[in-house]
């Protein structure tokens, strides 16, 4: 019996999956293990494998097989049909932008990244501006080509790469609801919190102790150390594939929680990947359903669970054991207040869960204007300051606090930012549904039991892989259409009701 | 101006070089970092990349370009001509054996390796025998096909993969010279050494202290830690490419020297790779000239330099500093005697430099008989015992001490063993020439100065890459044709003359 076109496609994607895993390991190693002086050699290896991956994915054979499989789609089961759809989606995305454009963009981004660092250091935006112009111009070309291929407006086409099935109309509706309520809620929360004394946490918490605590918590969560690793890197990330998944964090010896929470964020990503349907693990339908859902899972674990009273009840004795600490500042109430402090920070990555979305809206508004040419790069710093003044009431005074705080635009990542805020919105919506269906979840978390939480997530979300469109998956899992309502209710009850 | 066929070939090999580097990193990670449960996923990644590498190397385009470049060979410089020859050699080796045979051999070897371990554990050769039969039969097919393609007898074709340009005639001549002299020399050396008291070295030497010592010595040797790493693994090895080269060793807390000498062995490999001509580093002519020369460089550093009196003068204060030891057993004479003890061991990897070659001859004789079908697998244990009795005067009593001590045959590596003994012969021959041309080398080594040694090696050997055939390179570097004479002179003067 000869293989069907669909079966041949599965074979091709098995090979692509192996390439993806190899590429992922090369990136992990570059950030965690590689000697400092080896970047050039690694760059050549990554470029060679990425080029080959692109060539395999866009080969004429693939489109012929896709067309032949499509003609026989009636003979396929529903997971196979969804898989075929995702195969075509990957191929269409890959072929929409010529390799020459992608590699020009990669080179421009490498230059822009260097000048972004120099501009931050010297507090001088003009060092970065011409390189951002160059990147932006190439991103515009890419967005136009992607938009043509996907029949979407340019910015929506970029968003579609990260959050398939979500467009600016969805984002605008959610951001409108959030921006109507959040500024007032933030003021109210800060006012309420000012009435509570918070004792400062001082001391040195060695990397090895922080790692010991982090590993114990990750094991409780369910991270499989026999098929995964935890390491350190400058920025936390998750790489690898199911079967060999690798998360990193960074430890600050002055901060006993930062490394743990960073690791929990990444563990959230890892648990999502690990929850995919096992029999589809090397196929497109067996992958995550985009960055917004990825972020929903990392923020759910880091922000919503990781800063909950229930989780802190489990964590507190572990903290006391690993750090050998005691005293009034290590009492439950003080730590809870420390972990849930709302602040008007100028920095996105330091923001609390209440003000986080405002930082994203700032970036969303500005990157749309940049892409459409309605905002010139030279006017970006002033537009940034004006936006911060309007949203937070203060203007940044240094480059590192301003539009130079994130690397995304230097790297050509436009359309990525909204997925952070969408992730938080989705996390809250899933959490509300999970909480309603598992009334004992707080008691379980307080005992360090995560099985029910991840059981629910697997059954209602992870296990669908990329089978359903994002909005349909969320509606099915939560019983509600995607909206900001759950996040607003969650923030209201956590920050503006009585203390736990 | 369009690229010439030769230039296009260089481009293709730049890509293959990047693939090789990626494959090497995947193997390094599997042995050093990978979680225990991730072997299956890694196997898929390695297989996918190896298959693609083979496909790129044997594509019809390559042979067309090779033929066209060959037709214009008069326009090329001598390094380019040599590069073209090595390209064709790689391609001819790759295409001589069909992918299906290689992958059947890989699967049979994986099974045989498992049963080899079980047979060692249970001291029962019959558990391994049928799997060795299967591997041997596939190796015979491979040797026949390679022999046809290269116009060589089957066993010589296998040797040619590891030691290009060396055949059984060369090996036989060298082994004949060695076997005539070594048994008598060994008896004489053991008798002489029995007159010297050797105080035993006792104590626990922590891994971190051993690593500290090893790193300091490797830095003195010239290993570039800014573009390389030292790690631990079950068996020491060298992986990576120039620009990111990675060696491993293993530490035994009861043995203060084993981890260091293992690392020196691997550093010898690394220094050879690092000595290749820089402008050819991603081309076939810019690579090592086969396993025999690789082993010559590792054994030169581990055995000849690493166990020399001059080196020990440099090492002794470092040992005392890192291990914080003193006492009569740590005096120079006692350590020198410890490091140069000659023994009639049954185990190859424990053998000293005097008896090492006898272990190789044992394997060489037997594997030729196995391949030719003159020795049946079921009779291998008896043939092994008879050979050991003849060479060392004793018979092994357990499987782990017998023909089951090495993994090579289980993995299908026939024709590999001779390169170890050739390596030692070549190392001694180069050392003799180097020593004659650099009369101050002992004083330099005693001061921990390695620059002159590696300067000579680069100028006379490393820097030629794969440009010259092995025998021509050795003759040019040493002024003598390849022979066992230097090794015999070296062993005579080190073990049978006065103590230093």
Provide a descriptive summary of the structure in words.
Two copies of one chain form a homodimer. Chain A folds into two domains: about 100 residues; about 350 residues, Neurolysin, domain 3 (Orthogonal Bundle), CATH 1.10.1370.30. Chain A is mainly alpha-helical and about 500 residues long. A three-stranded mixed β-sheet of chain A has the order 1-3-2, sandwiched between helices. In chain A, about 65% of the residues lie in helices and about 5% in strands. Chain A is globular, with a radius of gyration of 23 Å. Chain A contains 20 helices and three strands. In chain A, helix 1 packs antiparallel against helix 2, helix 6 packs across helix 7 and helix 10 crosses helix 11. Chain A starts with a helix and ends in a 5-residue tail after the last helix. The interface between A and B is large, with 37 and 37 residues.
